[in-house]
Amino acid sequence: MAKLRINQDSLTALERRSIGALASVYGLRMFGLFLILPVLAIYSEQLGGASPMLMGIALGVYGITQAIFQIPFGMLSDRFGRKPVIIGGLVIFIVGSLIAALSDTIEGVIIGRALQGAGAIAAVVLALTSDLTRESQRTKAMAMIGVTIGLAFMLALIVAPTLEFFIGVRGLFILTAILAAMAIVLIWKVVPTPVQTKNLEVKAEPGRMWALLRHPQLLRLDLGIFILHFILTAMFVVIPIILLEQLDLATGEHWRVYVPALLVSILFMIPLILLSTRKKWVMRIFLAAVCILLFAECLLMWRPYGVMGMTVCLFFFFWGFNLLEAMLPSLVSRVAPAAGKGSAMGVYNTFQFLGVFFGGFIGGTLYGALDITAVFLACGLLLLFWVWVIHTGPELRLLDSMVIQVASAERKDDIAAVTGVEEVIILAEELTAYLKVDKNILDLKALNEATKPA
Predict the structure, then answer these.
(1) Which helix (H) or strand (E) holds 273?
(2) How far apart are CA 267 and CA 282, in angstroms?
(3) What is the DSSP string of 126-159?
(4) Domain membership flag for residue 2
(5) Which domain holds residue 302?
(6) Less packed terminus of the chain by CB within 10 Å, N or C?
(7) End of a domain among 203, 228, 252?
Protein backbone atom coordinates (compact mmCIF):
# COMPACT_ATOMS: atom_id res chain seq x y z
CA MET A 1 0.00 0.00 0.00
CA ALA A 2 1.20 3.53 -0.72
CA LYS A 3 2.38 5.66 2.14
CA LEU A 4 0.07 8.54 1.33
CA ARG A 5 -1.13 9.94 4.61
CA ILE A 6 0.67 12.98 5.88
CA ASN A 7 2.97 11.58 8.51
CA GLN A 8 2.57 13.56 11.70
CA ASP A 9 5.10 11.44 13.58
CA SER A 10 7.95 13.31 15.15
CA LEU A 11 11.53 12.55 14.36
CA THR A 12 12.93 9.45 16.03
CA ALA A 13 15.84 9.76 18.44
CA LEU A 14 18.14 8.30 15.77
CA GLU A 15 16.89 10.78 13.16
CA ARG A 16 17.31 13.72 15.53
CA ARG A 17 20.85 12.67 16.36
CA SER A 18 21.73 12.07 12.72
CA ILE A 19 20.22 15.31 11.41
CA GLY A 20 21.73 17.38 14.22
CA ALA A 21 25.19 15.94 13.59
CA LEU A 22 24.99 16.24 9.81
CA ALA A 23 23.61 19.79 9.97
CA SER A 24 26.53 20.64 12.26
CA VAL A 25 29.02 19.08 9.84
CA TYR A 26 27.55 21.01 6.91
CA GLY A 27 27.32 24.19 8.95
CA LEU A 28 30.89 23.99 10.32
CA ARG A 29 32.33 23.58 6.84
CA MET A 30 30.26 26.39 5.33
CA PHE A 31 30.99 28.63 8.33
CA GLY A 32 34.69 28.06 7.68
CA LEU A 33 34.30 29.07 4.02
CA PHE A 34 32.11 32.10 4.79
CA LEU A 35 34.36 33.23 7.66
CA ILE A 36 37.00 34.40 5.18
CA LEU A 37 34.57 36.30 2.97
CA PRO A 38 34.46 39.70 4.78
CA VAL A 39 38.21 39.92 5.48
CA LEU A 40 40.13 38.20 2.68
CA ALA A 41 40.11 41.22 0.36
CA ILE A 42 41.86 43.37 2.99
CA TYR A 43 44.31 40.60 3.87
CA SER A 44 45.16 39.99 0.21
CA GLU A 45 46.23 43.61 -0.22
CA GLN A 46 48.91 42.99 2.43
CA LEU A 47 50.46 40.07 0.52
CA GLY A 48 53.27 40.63 -1.94
CA GLY A 49 52.23 40.68 -5.59
CA ALA A 50 48.51 40.52 -4.80
CA SER A 51 46.78 42.25 -7.71
CA PRO A 52 43.02 42.89 -7.45
CA MET A 53 42.42 40.12 -9.99
CA LEU A 54 44.38 37.58 -7.90
CA MET A 55 42.58 38.84 -4.81
CA GLY A 56 39.25 38.10 -6.50
CA ILE A 57 40.45 34.65 -7.56
CA ALA A 58 41.51 33.89 -3.98
CA LEU A 59 38.04 34.87 -2.81
CA GLY A 60 36.13 32.76 -5.34
CA VAL A 61 38.41 29.92 -6.43
CA TYR A 62 36.81 27.45 -4.03
CA GLY A 63 33.68 27.71 -6.18
CA ILE A 64 35.32 26.27 -9.30
CA THR A 65 36.83 23.31 -7.44
CA GLN A 66 33.50 22.61 -5.74
CA ALA A 67 31.80 22.65 -9.14
CA ILE A 68 34.38 20.20 -10.52
CA PHE A 69 34.45 17.73 -7.64
CA GLN A 70 30.88 17.61 -6.28
CA ILE A 71 29.68 14.89 -8.72
CA PRO A 72 32.85 12.72 -8.48
CA PHE A 73 32.54 12.82 -4.67
CA GLY A 74 28.94 11.68 -4.94
CA MET A 75 29.92 8.78 -7.21
CA LEU A 76 32.75 7.78 -4.85
CA SER A 77 30.32 7.75 -1.94
CA ASP A 78 28.04 5.36 -3.83
CA ARG A 79 30.96 2.97 -4.19
CA PHE A 80 32.94 3.34 -0.96
CA GLY A 81 30.31 4.60 1.46
CA ARG A 82 29.21 8.06 2.58
CA LYS A 83 31.20 8.44 5.81
CA PRO A 84 34.69 7.60 4.42
CA VAL A 85 34.18 10.04 1.53
CA ILE A 86 32.94 12.82 3.82
CA ILE A 87 35.93 12.33 6.13
CA GLY A 88 38.26 12.34 3.12
CA GLY A 89 36.72 15.59 1.88
CA LEU A 90 37.11 17.20 5.29
CA VAL A 91 40.78 16.14 5.43
CA ILE A 92 41.32 17.86 2.06
CA PHE A 93 39.56 20.93 3.45
CA ILE A 94 41.86 20.93 6.50
CA VAL A 95 44.98 20.65 4.30
CA GLY A 96 43.74 23.58 2.20
CA SER A 97 43.04 25.68 5.29
CA LEU A 98 46.53 25.06 6.68
CA ILE A 99 48.22 25.81 3.35
CA ALA A 100 46.35 29.13 3.19
CA ALA A 101 47.25 29.90 6.81
CA LEU A 102 50.97 29.27 6.27
CA SER A 103 51.23 31.09 2.93
CA ASP A 104 53.00 34.41 2.58
CA THR A 105 51.90 34.92 -1.03
CA ILE A 106 48.55 35.32 -2.73
CA GLU A 107 49.32 32.28 -4.89
CA GLY A 108 49.62 30.12 -1.78
CA VAL A 109 46.29 31.41 -0.48
CA ILE A 110 44.69 30.61 -3.86
CA ILE A 111 46.02 27.03 -3.71
CA GLY A 112 44.71 26.67 -0.15
CA ARG A 113 41.27 28.04 -1.05
CA ALA A 114 41.11 25.76 -4.10
CA LEU A 115 41.79 22.75 -1.87
CA GLN A 116 39.11 23.92 0.56
CA GLY A 117 36.61 23.75 -2.27
CA ALA A 118 37.99 20.46 -3.59
CA GLY A 119 36.73 18.74 -0.44
CA ALA A 120 33.27 18.92 -2.03
CA ILE A 121 31.15 16.95 0.43
CA ALA A 122 27.88 18.89 0.23
CA ALA A 123 26.05 16.40 -2.00
CA VAL A 124 27.38 13.44 -0.01
CA VAL A 125 26.14 14.93 3.27
CA LEU A 126 22.68 15.34 1.76
CA ALA A 127 22.77 11.76 0.46
CA LEU A 128 23.75 10.51 3.92
CA THR A 129 20.88 12.52 5.40
CA SER A 130 18.55 10.76 2.97
CA ASP A 131 19.93 7.35 3.97
CA LEU A 132 19.34 8.04 7.68
CA THR A 133 15.83 9.51 7.56
CA ARG A 134 12.41 8.21 6.62
CA GLU A 135 10.87 9.59 3.45
CA SER A 136 8.11 11.24 5.51
CA GLN A 137 10.71 13.19 7.53
CA ARG A 138 13.15 13.98 4.74
CA THR A 139 11.78 17.40 3.84
CA LYS A 140 12.06 18.41 7.50
CA ALA A 141 15.65 17.15 7.61
CA MET A 142 16.67 19.06 4.46
CA ALA A 143 15.01 22.22 5.77
CA MET A 144 17.00 21.97 9.01
CA ILE A 145 20.25 21.70 7.04
CA GLY A 146 19.20 24.65 4.87
CA VAL A 147 18.55 26.78 7.96
CA THR A 148 22.00 25.81 9.28
CA ILE A 149 23.65 27.10 6.10
CA GLY A 150 21.82 30.42 6.40
CA LEU A 151 22.79 30.78 10.04
CA ALA A 152 26.42 29.92 9.20
CA PHE A 153 26.49 32.67 6.58
CA MET A 154 25.03 35.30 8.89
CA LEU A 155 27.16 34.33 11.88
CA ALA A 156 30.33 34.36 9.76
CA LEU A 157 29.68 37.90 8.51
CA ILE A 158 29.01 39.08 12.05
CA VAL A 159 31.96 37.51 13.87
CA ALA A 160 34.66 37.35 11.17
CA PRO A 161 35.81 41.01 11.41
CA THR A 162 36.05 40.83 15.22
CA LEU A 163 37.85 37.48 15.17
CA GLU A 164 40.25 38.80 12.54
CA PHE A 165 41.09 41.72 14.84
CA PHE A 166 42.22 39.27 17.57
CA ILE A 167 43.71 36.33 15.66
CA GLY A 168 44.31 37.66 12.14
CA VAL A 169 43.36 36.02 8.85
CA ARG A 170 45.97 33.28 9.39
CA GLY A 171 44.22 32.52 12.65
CA LEU A 172 40.88 32.36 10.84
CA PHE A 173 42.24 29.77 8.42
CA ILE A 174 43.57 27.72 11.35
CA LEU A 175 40.17 28.05 13.02
CA THR A 176 38.46 26.67 9.88
CA ALA A 177 40.81 23.68 10.03
CA ILE A 178 39.89 23.10 13.69
CA LEU A 179 36.18 23.31 12.85
CA ALA A 180 36.63 20.75 10.06
CA ALA A 181 38.45 18.44 12.51
CA MET A 182 35.47 18.76 14.86
CA ALA A 183 33.21 17.80 11.95
CA ILE A 184 35.29 14.65 11.38
CA VAL A 185 34.77 13.66 15.01
CA LEU A 186 31.01 14.15 14.60
CA ILE A 187 30.94 11.97 11.48
CA TRP A 188 33.09 9.28 13.07
CA LYS A 189 31.54 9.14 16.55
CA VAL A 190 27.97 10.44 16.30
CA VAL A 191 26.56 9.73 12.83
CA PRO A 192 25.39 6.12 12.34
CA THR A 193 26.60 4.08 9.36
CA PRO A 194 23.50 3.64 7.17
CA VAL A 195 22.29 1.18 4.59
CA GLN A 196 22.66 3.22 1.41
CA THR A 197 19.56 3.88 -0.66
CA LYS A 198 18.96 5.07 -4.19
CA ASN A 199 16.93 8.20 -3.57
CA LEU A 200 16.57 10.19 -6.79
CA GLU A 201 15.19 13.14 -4.84
CA VAL A 202 18.73 13.63 -3.49
CA LYS A 203 21.11 11.68 -5.73
CA ALA A 204 22.49 13.53 -8.78
CA GLU A 205 22.94 11.36 -11.87
CA PRO A 206 25.38 12.85 -14.42
CA GLY A 207 23.38 11.57 -17.40
CA ARG A 208 20.23 13.30 -16.23
CA MET A 209 22.10 16.50 -15.38
CA TRP A 210 23.13 17.00 -19.00
CA ALA A 211 19.50 16.56 -20.10
CA LEU A 212 18.27 19.03 -17.46
CA LEU A 213 20.60 21.70 -18.84
CA ARG A 214 18.11 21.94 -21.74
CA HIS A 215 15.11 22.38 -19.44
CA PRO A 216 14.12 26.02 -20.12
CA GLN A 217 12.46 26.72 -16.75
CA LEU A 218 15.23 25.11 -14.71
CA LEU A 219 17.86 26.91 -16.78
CA ARG A 220 16.31 30.27 -15.82
CA LEU A 221 16.61 29.34 -12.14
CA ASP A 222 20.17 28.07 -12.62
CA LEU A 223 21.07 31.35 -14.29
CA GLY A 224 19.53 33.14 -11.32
CA ILE A 225 21.67 31.38 -8.71
CA PHE A 226 24.77 32.01 -10.87
CA ILE A 227 24.00 35.75 -10.92
CA LEU A 228 23.15 35.83 -7.20
CA HIS A 229 26.45 34.29 -6.10
CA PHE A 230 28.43 36.19 -8.74
CA ILE A 231 27.14 39.39 -7.15
CA LEU A 232 27.77 38.21 -3.58
CA THR A 233 31.42 37.36 -4.26
CA ALA A 234 32.07 40.42 -6.42
CA MET A 235 30.60 42.64 -3.69
CA PHE A 236 32.94 41.25 -1.06
CA VAL A 237 35.94 42.03 -3.24
CA VAL A 238 35.22 45.72 -2.62
CA ILE A 239 32.87 46.15 0.38
CA PRO A 240 35.58 45.47 3.03
CA ILE A 241 37.86 47.92 1.23
CA ILE A 242 35.16 50.62 1.26
CA LEU A 243 34.60 50.12 4.98
CA LEU A 244 38.34 50.27 5.72
CA GLU A 245 39.55 52.98 3.35
CA GLN A 246 36.54 55.24 2.76
CA LEU A 247 34.75 54.96 6.10
CA ASP A 248 37.93 54.58 8.18
CA LEU A 249 36.47 51.58 9.99
CA ALA A 250 39.10 49.19 11.32
CA THR A 251 38.36 45.58 10.48
CA GLY A 252 37.28 44.87 14.04
CA GLU A 253 34.61 47.59 13.68
CA HIS A 254 32.98 46.25 10.49
CA TRP A 255 30.34 44.52 12.62
CA ARG A 256 28.79 47.96 13.13
CA VAL A 257 27.65 47.78 9.51
CA TYR A 258 27.05 44.04 9.04
CA VAL A 259 25.10 43.29 12.24
CA PRO A 260 22.27 45.86 11.93
CA ALA A 261 22.03 45.35 8.15
CA LEU A 262 21.67 41.56 8.53
CA LEU A 263 19.32 41.57 11.53
CA VAL A 264 16.92 44.16 10.09
CA SER A 265 16.96 42.41 6.70
CA ILE A 266 15.79 39.19 8.39
CA LEU A 267 12.86 41.02 10.01
CA PHE A 268 11.82 42.40 6.62
CA MET A 269 12.38 39.06 4.89
CA ILE A 270 10.07 36.94 7.06
CA PRO A 271 6.72 38.46 5.94
CA LEU A 272 7.70 38.10 2.27
CA ILE A 273 8.75 34.48 2.77
CA LEU A 274 5.34 33.77 4.32
CA LEU A 275 3.60 35.48 1.40
CA SER A 276 5.66 33.46 -1.08
CA THR A 277 4.09 30.23 0.22
CA ARG A 278 0.91 31.32 -1.56
CA LYS A 279 1.14 30.10 -5.13
CA LYS A 280 -0.08 33.30 -6.81
CA TRP A 281 2.45 35.39 -4.86
CA VAL A 282 5.56 33.32 -5.55
CA MET A 283 6.73 35.03 -8.73
CA ARG A 284 5.73 38.48 -7.51
CA ILE A 285 7.90 38.11 -4.41
CA PHE A 286 10.67 36.57 -6.50
CA LEU A 287 10.72 39.51 -8.94
CA ALA A 288 10.46 41.97 -6.03
CA ALA A 289 13.55 40.41 -4.40
CA VAL A 290 15.60 40.85 -7.59
CA CYS A 291 14.43 44.47 -7.80
CA ILE A 292 15.45 45.03 -4.16
CA LEU A 293 18.95 43.78 -5.05
CA LEU A 294 19.03 46.08 -8.08
CA PHE A 295 18.06 49.03 -5.87
CA ALA A 296 20.90 48.12 -3.49
CA GLU A 297 23.40 48.16 -6.37
CA CYS A 298 22.12 51.57 -7.49
CA LEU A 299 22.63 52.91 -3.95
CA LEU A 300 26.13 51.44 -3.82
CA MET A 301 27.06 53.08 -7.14
CA TRP A 302 26.14 56.41 -5.55
CA ARG A 303 27.75 55.24 -2.27
CA PRO A 304 26.39 57.52 0.44
CA TYR A 305 29.20 58.16 2.86
CA GLY A 306 29.04 57.33 6.51
CA VAL A 307 28.40 54.17 8.49
CA MET A 308 24.63 54.70 8.40
CA GLY A 309 24.60 55.14 4.62
CA MET A 310 26.56 51.94 4.02
CA THR A 311 24.39 50.09 6.53
CA VAL A 312 21.26 51.09 4.61
CA CYS A 313 22.85 49.95 1.33
CA LEU A 314 23.77 46.57 2.78
CA PHE A 315 20.36 46.21 4.43
CA PHE A 316 18.73 46.27 1.00
CA PHE A 317 21.38 43.93 -0.39
CA PHE A 318 20.94 41.33 2.38
CA TRP A 319 17.15 41.67 2.23
CA GLY A 320 17.07 40.76 -1.46
CA PHE A 321 19.88 38.21 -1.24
CA ASN A 322 18.42 36.26 1.68
CA LEU A 323 14.98 36.20 0.07
CA LEU A 324 16.35 34.74 -3.16
CA GLU A 325 18.69 32.34 -1.38
CA ALA A 326 15.67 30.93 0.48
CA MET A 327 13.30 30.81 -2.51
CA LEU A 328 15.47 29.46 -5.32
CA PRO A 329 16.08 25.89 -4.02
CA SER A 330 12.35 25.46 -3.38
CA LEU A 331 11.52 26.66 -6.89
CA VAL A 332 14.05 24.26 -8.41
CA SER A 333 12.57 21.31 -6.52
CA ARG A 334 9.04 22.24 -7.63
CA VAL A 335 9.96 22.74 -11.30
CA ALA A 336 12.23 19.65 -11.56
CA PRO A 337 10.73 16.59 -13.28
CA ALA A 338 9.74 13.49 -11.31
CA ALA A 339 12.76 11.55 -10.04
CA GLY A 340 14.93 14.45 -11.16
CA LYS A 341 15.22 16.69 -8.12
CA GLY A 342 18.62 15.38 -7.09
CA SER A 343 20.03 15.85 -10.58
CA ALA A 344 18.36 19.27 -10.94
CA MET A 345 19.92 20.39 -7.64
CA GLY A 346 23.28 19.08 -8.88
CA VAL A 347 23.07 21.38 -11.91
CA TYR A 348 21.83 24.22 -9.70
CA ASN A 349 24.73 23.84 -7.25
CA THR A 350 27.23 23.75 -10.12
CA PHE A 351 25.90 27.09 -11.42
CA GLN A 352 26.06 28.47 -7.88
CA PHE A 353 29.73 27.51 -7.45
CA LEU A 354 30.60 28.84 -10.90
CA GLY A 355 28.97 32.14 -9.91
CA VAL A 356 31.22 32.28 -6.83
CA PHE A 357 34.35 31.82 -8.94
CA PHE A 358 33.48 34.21 -11.77
CA GLY A 359 32.17 36.81 -9.31
CA GLY A 360 35.52 36.86 -7.53
CA PHE A 361 37.57 36.77 -10.75
CA ILE A 362 35.62 39.39 -12.71
CA GLY A 363 34.96 41.55 -9.64
CA GLY A 364 38.68 41.66 -8.87
CA THR A 365 39.57 42.33 -12.50
CA LEU A 366 37.10 45.23 -12.78
CA TYR A 367 38.28 46.72 -9.51
CA GLY A 368 41.91 46.57 -10.63
CA ALA A 369 41.36 47.81 -14.18
CA LEU A 370 38.73 50.48 -13.43
CA ASP A 371 37.41 51.23 -9.93
CA ILE A 372 34.97 50.16 -7.25
CA THR A 373 31.97 51.70 -9.03
CA ALA A 374 32.62 49.45 -12.05
CA VAL A 375 32.02 46.40 -9.85
CA PHE A 376 28.62 47.68 -8.71
CA LEU A 377 27.74 48.71 -12.27
CA ALA A 378 28.50 45.21 -13.58
CA CYS A 379 26.37 43.69 -10.82
CA GLY A 380 23.54 46.08 -11.61
CA LEU A 381 23.62 45.21 -15.33
CA LEU A 382 23.49 41.49 -14.50
CA LEU A 383 20.46 42.12 -12.28
CA LEU A 384 18.75 44.09 -15.05
CA PHE A 385 19.31 41.10 -17.33
CA TRP A 386 17.82 38.82 -14.65
CA VAL A 387 14.74 41.06 -14.36
CA TRP A 388 14.33 40.84 -18.15
CA VAL A 389 14.60 37.04 -18.07
CA ILE A 390 11.96 36.78 -15.35
CA HIS A 391 9.63 39.31 -16.98
CA THR A 392 9.76 37.87 -20.50
CA GLY A 393 9.80 34.16 -19.61
CA PRO A 394 6.66 32.04 -19.16
CA GLU A 395 5.20 31.56 -15.69
CA LEU A 396 6.99 28.81 -13.78
CA ARG A 397 4.94 25.62 -13.48
CA LEU A 398 5.19 24.87 -9.78
CA LEU A 399 4.26 21.32 -8.74
CA ASP A 400 4.97 19.27 -5.63
CA SER A 401 6.99 16.06 -5.39
CA MET A 402 5.80 12.83 -3.80
CA VAL A 403 7.70 9.59 -3.21
CA ILE A 404 5.48 6.58 -2.49
CA GLN A 405 5.73 2.81 -2.31
CA VAL A 406 3.66 0.85 -4.83
CA ALA A 407 2.53 -2.77 -4.92
CA SER A 408 3.45 -3.27 -8.57
CA ALA A 409 5.24 -1.36 -11.34
CA GLU A 410 2.37 -2.33 -13.62
CA ARG A 411 0.10 0.23 -11.91
CA LYS A 412 1.90 3.17 -13.55
CA ASP A 413 -0.96 3.95 -15.97
CA ASP A 414 -3.52 3.79 -13.14
CA ILE A 415 -1.46 6.22 -11.06
CA ALA A 416 -0.97 8.57 -14.02
CA ALA A 417 -4.76 8.68 -14.54
CA VAL A 418 -5.42 10.04 -11.04
CA THR A 419 -6.62 13.64 -10.95
CA GLY A 420 -3.77 15.92 -9.94
CA VAL A 421 -0.94 13.55 -10.93
CA GLU A 422 1.14 15.20 -13.64
CA GLU A 423 4.10 12.82 -13.97
CA VAL A 424 5.01 9.32 -12.77
CA ILE A 425 8.32 7.45 -12.75
CA ILE A 426 8.55 4.03 -11.07
CA LEU A 427 11.73 2.22 -10.05
CA ALA A 428 10.56 -1.36 -10.56
CA GLU A 429 13.34 -2.98 -8.55
CA GLU A 430 12.48 -0.90 -5.48
CA LEU A 431 8.72 -0.52 -6.11
CA THR A 432 9.13 3.20 -5.53
CA ALA A 433 7.13 5.79 -7.46
CA TYR A 434 8.27 9.39 -7.94
CA LEU A 435 5.37 11.73 -8.68
CA LYS A 436 4.87 15.37 -9.62
CA VAL A 437 1.45 16.47 -8.44
CA ASP A 438 -0.78 19.50 -8.13
CA LYS A 439 -1.82 19.21 -4.49
CA ASN A 440 -4.68 21.66 -4.98
CA ILE A 441 -6.60 19.09 -7.03
CA LEU A 442 -4.89 15.81 -6.10
CA ASP A 443 -7.36 12.97 -5.39
CA LEU A 444 -5.59 11.17 -2.53
CA LYS A 445 -8.28 8.50 -2.25
CA ALA A 446 -7.97 7.58 -5.92
CA LEU A 447 -4.18 7.59 -5.67
CA ASN A 448 -4.31 5.22 -2.72
CA GLU A 449 -6.53 2.85 -4.71
CA ALA A 450 -4.25 3.05 -7.75
CA THR A 451 -1.23 1.86 -5.78
CA LYS A 452 -2.87 -1.28 -4.37
CA PRO A 453 -2.33 -4.68 -6.03
CA ALA A 454 -4.46 -5.09 -9.15
Answers:
(1) helix 255-276
(2) 19
(3) HHHHHHHS-HHHHHHHHHHHHHHHHHHHHHHHHH
(4) no
(5) 208-398
(6) C
(7) 203
Q: Are residues 374 and 428 in the same domain?
A: no
Please tell me the predicted confidence (pLDDT) of residue 278. Answer: 72
Structural domains in the chain (count): 3
Is the Cβ–Cβ distance between 238 and 379 less than 8 Å? no
Lowest mean pLDDT among 178-192, 249-263, 290-304, 418-432: 418-432
Q: Do 91 and 169 fall into the same domain?
A: yes
Residue 410 is given by DSSP the state: G
Check if the beta carbon of residue 112 is closer than 8 Å to that of residue 98: yes
* Diameter of the chain measured on Cα atoms: 75
pLDDT tens by residue, 253-287:
888 899 999 999 989 988 888 887 776 788 889 99
- Looking at the structure, tell me whether residues 264 and 383 fall in a common domain: yes
Task: Kindly report the CATH number assigned to the domain that includes residue 280.
Answer: 1.20.1250.20
Give Cα separations from 333 to 217, 255, 401 (angstroms).
12, 35, 8
What type of residue is 147?
A: V
Q: 433 in helix, strand or coil?
A: strand
DSSP 8-state code for residue 105: B
Check if the beta carbon of residue 399 is closer than 8 Å to that of residue 390.
Answer: no
Q: Are residues 58 and 80 in the same domain?
A: yes
- Mind giving me the DSSP string for 365-380? HHHHHS-HHHHHHHHH
